[in-house]
Design brief:
CATH superfamily of the largest domain: Bira Bifunctional Protein, Domain 2
Strand order of the largest sheet: 6-10-11-16-15-14-13-12
Mean pLDDT: 95
CATH topology of the largest domain: BirA Bifunctional Protein, domain 2
Strand content: 15-25%
Number of strands: 16
Largest sheet: 8 strands, mixed
Helix content: 25-40%
Bound molecules: 4-amino-1,4-dioxobutan-2-aminium adenosine-5'-monophosphate, magnesium ion
CATH class of the largest domain: Alpha Beta
Radius of gyration: 27 Å
């Protein structure tokens, strides 16, 4: 008989059916009630065992974590907490889980402990909910772009150009670290390396996506990117997934419109399709908040917060205006900011971004037209000669979630900026080629997928929204 998923079984229409179901034991009470979970839903299936019909040796193996196959009849449940249950007729133990050593017992575990058990933590309600929402969001991303005329473009993971400047890179090499070939000057000779040159893991697929946008019109990447920054924060990973759409003939306004519409659409998708998991995560968050002082508690519950995003316009604010707001803000005047905002041109720290979003505007903010000096070489220089058509989207509780820009499509202006920023044009010859042959205005942005999952699930630490996080000093699993 074909096995059912628990999700499909938990409906009154199933009453009377003979069923087979597989899953893992969450709890086993009174030698009689198994709570079985198979990952298809947050809810468990109650399986009722008549202990007199089963061997002691079998019953002993029904421990938290054990994998079972159960055959039986679906009946209406007399107990509270579930409408239906299975009356167990046959029971097969796929694999036991010794309660003396199985780490995921039915009690509260700390996030720190669970990170050390990343291979097992998805067997908890919290992580299963987060990972189902993550999967739904990934689907929604592809769905959105498919419905809006974009092509999915696979940017290379290994890159020969290190000029993007988005962050420190991880070197890719097959040279023997103990005995590398050396040049006449005594430096490592990467000419002898696998690719005949220095290569790294990519920090962004943008530059390559630009090449494809200039033929396919609208493309997007969705893949892993790598940054070797030593940032031990709750918002940084060394390996994270980024979504990078790139559109020919789009200016900065079109870019902002797309980013806002895209984010709203994918959040709406999970509001419609992940209700059960979001309700669970919301409750979890409310419980967690109860342990915090009043002032640190969020004024909105999770689902309300997501709806707030989908139903309200993002506030669009030029950098120059943001600087004025920050300069005159209370924390700046009272010297509460770690980095005081004194003059136009400074880069914004996350404390500033959070002030703007959480205190001043109280909604998502799109900051745009940043000083050229603090932004990448490829961003389009504005008429004023000192700002570029950049835009960052800032979210409450997260800070920067999107970074994007209109790209410099004018060859001469691009070359001048590359020179100023000491970027070797020879290395990026193919990128400047795009400005020589059929150049046109174009724009794009990068959305940090884990930061979005963090926002959508209310998880406080980015390490808890990716299956196996990579951070400084940590690449276990
Ligand atoms: O602002 P970033 O560095 O932009 C770029 O890489 C551009 N090339 C994107 C583009 O225009 N196509 O990164 C984009 C986003 C950030 O806003 C943030 O959400 C996320 O990527 N991000 C990280 N997420 C997790 N861990 C890190 N270390 C991250 N660094 C950036
Ligand atoms: Mg950025």
């Amino acid at each position: 008989m074909k096995a059912y998923s628990i999700k499909d079984l938990l409906t009154p229409d199933c009453i009377g059916k003979e069923v087979v179901v597989n899953g893992w034991v969450r709890t086993f009470r009174s030698n009689r009630f198994i709570a079985l979970n198979d990952g298809s839903t947050q809810r468990n299936l109650q399986c009722v065992v008549d202990f007199e019909s089963f061997d002691e040796s079998i019953l002993k193996q029904i421990n938290t974590g054990a994998a079972l196959r159960i055959s039986g009849t679906m009946v209406e449940s007399m107990g509270r907490g579930q409408a239906v249950e299975v009356q167990v007729k046959e029971l097969f133990i796929h694999g036991g889980a010794d309660p003396e050593v199985y780490p995921i017992q039915p009690k509260k575990h700390t996030m720190e402990f669970l990170r050390e058990q990343a291979h097992l933590r998805v067997r908890t309600n919290t992580f299963a909910a987060v990972m189902r929402v993550r999967s739904a969001l990934a689907f929604a991303v592809h769905n959105y772009f498919r419905n809006h005329g974009f092509y999915y473009f696979h940017a290379p993971i290994i890159t020969g150009s290190d000029a993007e400047g988005a962050g420190e890179m991880f070197r890719v090499t097959t040279l023997d670290p103990k005995n590398p070939p050396l040049t006449d000057e005594g430096l490592v000779d990467y000419g002898e390396d696998f690719f005949g040159k220095e290569t790294n893991l990519t920090v962004s697929g943008q530059l390559e996506a630009e090449a494809y946008a200039m033929a396919l019109g609208k493309v997007y990447t969705f893949g892993p990117t790598f940054r070797a920054e030593n940032s031990n924060t709750s918002r940084h990973l060394a390996e994270f997934w980024m979504i990078e759409p790139e559109m020919a003939f789009y200016d900065l306004d079109d870019n902002m419109d797309l980013a806002e519409d895209f984010i709203k659409d994918i959040l709406n998708y999970i509001l419609t399709n992940c209700e059960e998991d979001l309700m669970f995560l919301e409750k979890r968050l409310l419980d967690e908040e109860k342990t915090k002082p009043q002032a640190e508690r969020s004024s909105m519950a999770l689902i309300e917060k997501l709806k707030f995003i989908t139903e309200n316009e993002f506030k669009r604010v030029p950098y120059t205006e943001a600087i004025d707001i920050l300069r005159n803000s209370k924390p700046n005047k009272k010297k509460k900011f770690q980095f005081l905002v004194n003059e136009w041109g400074v880069d914004l720290q996350s404390e500033h971004e959070r002030y703007l979003v959480e205190k001043h505007f109280n909604c998502p903010v799109i900051l745009y037209d940043y000083p050229a000096k603090i932004k990448a070489f490829y961003m389009r220089l504005n008429e004023d000669g000192k700002t570029v058509g950049a835009m960052d989207i800032l979210f409450p509780g997260i800070g920067e979630i999107v970074g994007g820009s209109q790209r410099e499509e004018r060859l001469d202006v691009l070359q001048k900026r590359m020179e100023e920023m000491e970027i070797d044009e020879k290395e990026l010859w193919w990128y400047t080629d795009l400005r020589k042959f059929g150049t046109a205005k174009h724009s794009g942005f990068g959305l940090g997928f884990e930061r979005l999952v963090q926002f959508a699930t209310g998880m406080g630490n980015i390490r808890d929204v990716i299956p196996f996080p990579r951070t400084p000093q940590n690449a276990e699993f």
